Write a sequence for this structure.
């Protein structure tokens, strides 16, 4: 009888230890999951505006949708922003160096044309654009143009200019060329989705292809601030143009119930300063 009691006590202690170990694993897994996702979002937001002609657009008479870092549709639960995550860019020495809106043109002597073709294909899908930017007679300007063909043999990119800065579309020196890209993040159910733009024909409602980067989340919030730390609601173009900092709060929960039947949560807030937002 004594041996039986000792065995029962030992078994109960083993059960308690096993449950405690399992619970701790679930909690650590949840915390690591939240940290990984929040850090990824913050890291990509820090690259916001990369390969976008932020500096050139400072010379525009007013903010223009086609050159904004924070995109329409961003709010407290979702963010969309331009960022050259693949860093596809190059230079074109021309000719031509004039790109009237709506007039098909061909960028010639393009350095790194192979990278553009690798990203888009020789015949890109509809709705993919490049930025063309450089010096004009009126200081600096930019053009946003849809890509229609890419040749690595000729080092050319055929484009149709769609929008431009207010300082003109004729450049006086070789231009920079960069691929327009955009990213989005949002919570859907208990999953955090990351989107990449596949069609940017609509400036205010681009088509995104989304994939899951994290599960078991209960919250994802974004807070926007200007350079004076004033809170901003990004519901207008003028407000989005003032975004200087974004705070991201991600809240996760354990993947299943703990021994006591609960699913505890863990929240993490990280602060991101898109480095290109400060370009003057």
């Amino acid at each position: 009888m004594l041996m039986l009691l000792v065995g029962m006590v030992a078994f109960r202690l083993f059960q308690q230890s096993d449950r405690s170990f399992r619970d701790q694993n679930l909690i650590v897994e949840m915390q690591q999951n939240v940290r990984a996702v929040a850090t990824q979002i913050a890291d990509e937001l820090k690259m916001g505006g990369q390969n976008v002609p932020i500096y050139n657009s400072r010379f525009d008479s007013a903010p223009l949708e086609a050159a904004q870092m924070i995109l329409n549709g961003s709010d407290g639960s979702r963010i969309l922003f331009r960022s050259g995550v693949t860093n596809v860019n190059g230079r074109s020495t021309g000719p031509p160096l004039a790109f009237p809106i709506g007039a098909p043109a061909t960028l010639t002597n393009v350095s790194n044309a192979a990278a553009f073709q690798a990203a888009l294909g020789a015949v890109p899908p509809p709705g993919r654009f490049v930025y063309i930017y450089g010096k004009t007679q009126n200081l600096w300007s930019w053009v946003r143009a849809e890509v229609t063909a890419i040749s690595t043999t000729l080092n050319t990119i055929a484009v149709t200019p769609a929008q431009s800065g207010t300082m003109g579309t004729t450049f006086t020196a070789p231009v920079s060329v960069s691929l327009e890209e955009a990213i989005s993040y949002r919570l859907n159910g208990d999953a955090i989705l990351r989107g990449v733009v596949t069609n940017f024909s609509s400036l205010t409602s681009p088509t995104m292809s989304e994939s899951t980067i994290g599960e078991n989340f209960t919250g994802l919030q974004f807070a926007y601030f200007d350079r004076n730390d004033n809170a901003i609601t990004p519901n207008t173009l003028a407000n989005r143009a003032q975004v200087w900092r974004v705070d991201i709060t991600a809240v996760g929960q354990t993947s299943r119930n703990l021994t006591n039947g609960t699913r505890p949560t863990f929240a993490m807030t990280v602060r991101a300063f898109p480095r290109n937002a400060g370009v003057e």
